[in-house]
Amino acid sequence: MALRTVSALKRRLGGAGLGLLRSGQISSAAGRSGAGRARAGRGRGVAWTRPRLGEEQLGPTCPVGPTWESVSRPSSTDRKCLGRAGNFLPCAAQHRLEKTPSYIDYPATARRSFSNHRVIVDMDQSLGVATIKIKNPPVNSLSLELLTEFLIGWEKLENDKSCKGVILTSNYPKIFSAGLDILEMCGKNAAHYTEYWKAVQELWLKLYMSNMVVIAAINGSSPAGGCLLALTSDYRVMADNPKYTIGLNETLLGIVAPFWFKDNLVNTIGNRASEQALQLGLLFSPAEALKIGLVDQLVPEDKVQSTALSVMSQWLKIPDHARQLTKTMMRKPTADLLLKQREADIDNFVRFISRDGIQKSLHMYLKALKERKE
Ligand SMILES: CCCCCCC/C=C/C(=O)SCCNC(=O)CCNC(=O)[C@H](O)C(C)(C)COP(=O)(O)OP(=O)(O)OC[C@H]1O[C@@H](n2cnc3c(N)ncnc32)[C@H](O)[C@@H]1OP(=O)(O)O
Description:
Blueprint: H1 6-13, H2 15-23, H3 29-33, E1 39-40, E2 49-50, H4 53-58, H5 68-72, H6 91-97, E3 111-115, E4 119-124, E5 129-134, H7 144-159, E6 165-170, E7 174-175, H8 190-208, E8 213-218, E9 220-223, H9 225-231, E10 235-239, E11 246-247, H10 259-269, H11 271-280, H12 286-292, E12 297-299, H13 304-315, H14 320-340, H15 342-354, H16 356-373
Parallel strand pairs: 5-6, 6-8, 7-9, 8-10, 9-11, 10-12
Antiparallel strand pairs: 1-2, 3-4, 4-5
Helix pairs in contact: 1-2, 1-7, 7-8, 8-15, 10-11, 10-14
Bound molecules: ligand LOHRUJSQ.
């Protein structure tokens, strides 16, 4: 089945994925009590899913928190919860901005989480920052299922106007992501390869061109597609552990990094360093990666997440529209190159990966990975 959009990806997941979107599966206390369950706001010019802000973030005692219904015709009280540009700010954050009197009892941090099988999303609404944790054991390989669930979670965040930044990390310290799932590229048919590659393209385009600030908290090894995932971000913080490696090592598998992987790398570390890194399939230690600019900062393992958060708060201080336009100006030419030849890129991938010689190389690589353990 050919997949064109995220909605097609959602359809592919069938009941599970759509069920998740409909119910919101909010795991916060409010969600468990049912008060914060997401509701689809349809028919009022709003096409996305949002919880009842008043209930979920402040609890039923909030004196000014608007309900979903009241937002469509905001009262003067409700307007207190609307941002200056008419954006709907997270209720708790807006209250803080307005220096609400202290007798109003609301939680210091309003959190909302949702998760599916392979992705955990934890949204801190008071900061407007979500953390996405990948959890696809054993090595966070980017399987089709993971990509699909990731894209669904990402779309929810993109549609949530209160979400300004996302931190990407792994649920399993030691491995950020083992990259594309080799099993998705081995022994399958052309239709499967097509579907898989569309999902890989889609994820890269969405992350690379996101208006949100994206920070990678790289808490483990990050080869090939894992490195690409990190490269889509605006800033990369990596755990300073010499056992971890990062890089586009595709040639070691007997395959070639596509031009948009290469472009993303060149934009990050420059042409000469990319030439060597790509031809030799170099996997860099954190110190080497820092030296060539593949990552921006090294910190002790237990500081990766907190550093990512503090970097995020710096980036979020920049006026959003100016930062977004600048990001677009810097990245659009690169993304456009793929957008212009998406179909050709898919055909190329399918033809390449279907070759007997390439299949043999991938099988041998997988075998070598397994034998390494024995
Ligand atoms: C024209 C277009 C051309 C095509 C372009 C395609 C671009 C491709 C991009 C890619 O991302 S290809 C994938 C590249 N990835 C790698 O090279 C990483 C390989 N893995 C590792 O180096 C290590 O596994 C690790 C990530 C460093 C973790 O090491 P650890 O010792 O903790 O675990 P292992 O015992 O090695 O692995 C456990 C288990 O997982 C399997 N596995 C590992 N990586 C992958 C993967 N990418 N895809 C699928 N499966 C993977 C490994 O075989 C083990 O399986 P079992 O033995 O337990 O069955």
